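name: query_chain
kind: protein
chains: 1
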Amino acid sequence: MKPFLIPAAVLLLCAASASAWAAPGTVLRNEKLYSQPSSGAKVTATVAKGASVDILAKQGGWLRVTAGKSTGWIRLLSVRAGAGGLGGAGIGDVVGAATTQSDPSRVVAVAGLRGLNEEDLKKAQFNAGELARLQAMSVSPAQARSFAGQAGLAAVKVPALPEPKPAESSSSWESN
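structure:
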């Protein structure tokens, strides 16, 4: 084999194997494809609900997909991993994707929150420096209204929630 053909063959093999690693998926709603994994990025194409895509990569809450001749980033929860169309594509499919045991051919996401555990709370101490730093970032109501107005936001009066009723005992053993 000629020396210049070896790099070309390796490149071709890599391209072919990369497409073999792509996992199938179905778009759950009309969505935009972005050039980067950010809703502020340039929109490169749109994908219709029910379209088949090949999932190439995952980054945070985004999937890099190929849809037809377009490749771009789409929100993770807008795609149902696996082949099969929109057969049941509802909340159960999203929950199923989030709770199914990992399979290398599927992209699985688990939504959750990370917060303070009991041990962190036990170690908590007052920090006057952090409080002062926080207070230094405060703004007046007038400054907040001005900032919101610059963004085109307007105040809306929302009715107050009803006062909570005192809890009633559900046990005959407890007395008021």
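note: The domain at 18-99 is CATH 2.30.30.40 (SH3 type barrels.).
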